[in-house]
Amino acid sequence: MSEAAIRTEGLGRDYGRHHALESVNLAIERGRVVALLGPHGAGTTTFLRLLVGLLEPTNGRSWVLESPSRALPEQIAAKIGYMGDADEPPPWSTIKQLMCLQAESSAEFDRAFFERSMTARELAPASRYGSLSKGQKKWVRAALVLAGRPEIMLMDEPAEGLDPSARQSLYDELRDHVTEGEATAVVATHVIGDIERIADDAAVIDHGRVIAHAALEDLREQVREVQLPADEQMPEFGDSIELLGSRVASDTRLVWVRCAIGSLSELEQSLPAGSTVRSANLETFYLALTQHNSNGRDNDAKEKPK
Amino acid sequence: MYLRLDYQSGEAIYRQIVEQVKYKIASGELSPADRLPSIRDLAKQLKINPRTVVKAYEELQSGGLVVRRQGQGVFVRDGQAAIPARTRHKLIAEIARRMLAEASRLGASEEEVQTILKDAIEEMRSDK
């Protein structure tokens, strides 16, 4: 059970002088759905491409199902369903051709599921890929990956351009396959709302680094957003409360903290009068982390001379 | 078994399952000897990790509300009159106090809270 489905050690990739990804150490357990979050250009795409061996790392190594990404044996590669951000099938191919092609490369191909998915979106087998809308293309590609019933799914922005109901069905199908097939999924996205419902863990990448990797159940119980009056000093927190980020909005200061289990009352006690505490969600957590690393710091710096 | 999950409530999903099953037992919607959905079925229905369901069921079991019978599933424990009325009363009063404290912090008036509560009851009725 605890065997890692995906593992990286000091994984990094440079493009010239630019560090697209820097020394990532990550272990992803089997049976999890991981939301890989990050702003555009943060390194999520590079990370996925390194995992499937489409890119050579500059530093470090990675393994998928215990096999090194740089030389995945064919039988392991067949267990991986990868949906890249840009690897488009030829525009002249029909949906049916794409299906047959995929069915050849995956022994477990679930044709009935694929056909059902196409009917659900009123897509005819004879339609040419190039004639589809952006959302329809994503839908076809995601359905091809899911129908292959892979043990590992690596998907880069699979829901981008899909309408809300398609997005929901896609994520539902993905979740069901992970549960049924004891599979593992890593889904890179910058749209947080939908993935929060089905994900088990979140990994946040910013500026080429993994700045957080946590179970959403823990976040729900432990992360809080605190609103302080702007003229208040930053309160002193005890050891059981970790400061995640802070930001000054018009007349208030927002602070995000992670409280060890059982220390929520301690948090309330250390706050000045007029503060409010709200439960956080994945989006709040994400903002706290990414802003802390960029403009959050600037805001704090600007404020000091007062 | 219908459960409604709130992903942004600041409460872990397994806790929400525990609380809602407790409520269903207390309200009589679930009776002694009723079988809870299997772990896999509930996980699929709610689109959550099976381990989250396991955690919720374990918590219900250690609280004495349900019992696991090998190979048959998880059942509402019989022989106990669900929750004694007094305990139930205390449990709900505690939840109400917590809710009121939160509501007043958000600046809600008494009437507003009452309206919200009434609406929530209506909503639950229509969901059944």
Structure description:
- The complex is a heterodimer of chains A (306) and B (128).
- Chain A has 306 residues and is of the alpha/beta class.
- Chain A has two domains: 4-207, P-loop containing nucleotide triphosphate hydrolases (Rossmann fold), CATH 3.40.50.300; 217-290, Alpha-Beta Plaits.
- Helices cover 35% and strands 30% of the residues of chain A.
- Chain A has helices spanning 44-51, 74-77, 95-105, 111-120, 134-147, 164-181, 192-198, 216-222, 264-269, 282-293, 295-303; strands spanning 4-15, 18-29, 33-37, 59-64, 67-68, 80-83, 152-156, 184-189, 201-206, 209-215, 223-229, 241-249, 252-259, 276-279.
- In chain A, the strands form three sheets. Chain A has a six-stranded mixed sheet with strand order 6-7-8-3-9-10, sandwiched between helices. A four-stranded antiparallel sheet of chain A has the order 2-1-4-5, covered by helices on one side. A four-stranded antiparallel sheet of chain A has the order 12-13-11-14.
- Chain B has helices spanning 13-26, 39-46, 50-62, 85-105, 110-127; strands at 66-69, 73-76.
- A two-stranded antiparallel sheet of chain B has the order 1-2.
- In chain B, a hairpin with a 3-residue loop joins strand 1 (66-69) and strand 2.
- Chain B starts with 12 loop residues before the first helix and ends with a helix.
- In chain B, 20% of the residues are buried.
- The model of chain B has no long low-confidence stretch (mean pLDDT 86).
- Chains A and B meet through helix 6, helix 7, helix 8 and strand 14 of A and helix 1, helix 2 and helix 3 of B.
In short:
The complex is a heterodimer of chains A (306) and B (128). With 306 residues, chain A is an alpha/beta fold.
Task: Kindly report the average pLDDT value of chain A.
Answer: 88
Shape of chain A: elongated
Count of alpha/pi helices of chain B = 5
Q: What fraction strand of chain B?
A: 5-15%
Q: What structural class is derived from the secondary structure elements of chain A?
A: alpha/beta
Q: What is the helix/strand order of chain B?
A: HHHEEHH
- Overall shape of chain B: it is globular
Identify the strand order in the major beta sheet of chain B. Answer: 1-2
CATH architecture of the largest domain in chain A: 3-Layer(aba) Sandwich
The biggest sheet of chain A amounts to: 6 strands, mixed
Distance separating the two termini of chain B: 9 Å
